[in-house]
Design goal:
Blueprint (H helix, E strand, L loop, with lengths): L1 H32 L3 H23 L13 E7 L4 E6 L4 H4 L4 E2 L10 E7 L1 H6 L9 E6 L3 E14 L12 E9 L8 E13 L2
Parallel strand pairs: 4-7
Antiparallel strand pairs: 1-2, 1-5, 3-4, 5-6, 6-8, 7-8
Length: about 200
């Protein structure tokens, strides 16, 4: 009897320790996510977008990041010296903008000849766009159109009614447009980064 009693006693600290660990982890996750639903959503969606882009590149066909998505990857921007990447998405709606740079459907696709306009959400402006400087190098991997090297040509702050930056061009460029200074929902100015092609890299 005493031997069995000793064995039972020795197993109790393990069970209580495991329960305590689960409680601590649960409380930590709950506290972390309070007021940070957008952060958690962005973190989860970023992984799904990256996976969709890898599968798109491997298969050569459109792959949605989740079954009910009304968007899919069109390309990927990578800034080597910042070690930053952004997936470019089809569909320029508000719910898509909060996830990644979104292509303006009235302009050419990223990587094609002409002016490809990308709209940037305020969150991505702070994460990515504001860190770009003149002459920074950018690599674009384009869906079905190779890998291209670009250089930041100019950065402008303009009124939101300015339309010259969305017009067609005869060169290959990306025009990245965000609100400015991204502190409210009724910004009248726009932050514009013009990125021009320097060379194409063969796969």
């Amino acid at each position: 009897m005493y031997a069995n009693y000793d064995i039972v006693n020795k197993s109790r600290p393990f069970r209580w320790g495991s329960l305590l660990l689960v409680i601590v982890i649960s409380i930590t996750i709950w506290q972390f996510t309070q007021g940070k639903e957008i952060f958690l959503k962005t973190w989860l969606s970023r992984g799904l977008l990256h996976t969709a882009w890898v599968r798109t590149q491997a298969s050569g066909r459109i792959v949605k990041p989740w079954p009910w998505a009304n968007t899919w990857p069109l390309g990927r921007i990578y800034v080597p010296h910042l070690k930053l990447e952004q997936i470019i998405l089809f569909n320029n709606s508000n719910n898509i903008l909060s996830l990644a740079p979104s292509h303006a459907n009235s302009t050419v696709l990223p990587g094609y000849m002409g002016n490809s306009v990308l709209n940037i959400h305020r969150n991505i402006y702070f994460q990515f766009l504001k860190h770009l400087k003149a002459n920074d190098k950018i690599v674009l991997e384009s869906f079905n159109n190779g890998r291209w090297h670009y250089t930041v040509d100019n950065i402008y702050i303009v009124d939101k009614t300015t339309i010259e930056f969305v017009k067609p061009t005869l060169d290959r460029r990306l025009t990245l447009i965000s609100c400015y200074p991204c502190e409210s929902n009724n910004e009248r100015r726009r932050y514009v980064v013009v990125v021009k092609e320097t060379e194409r890299e063969a796969f």
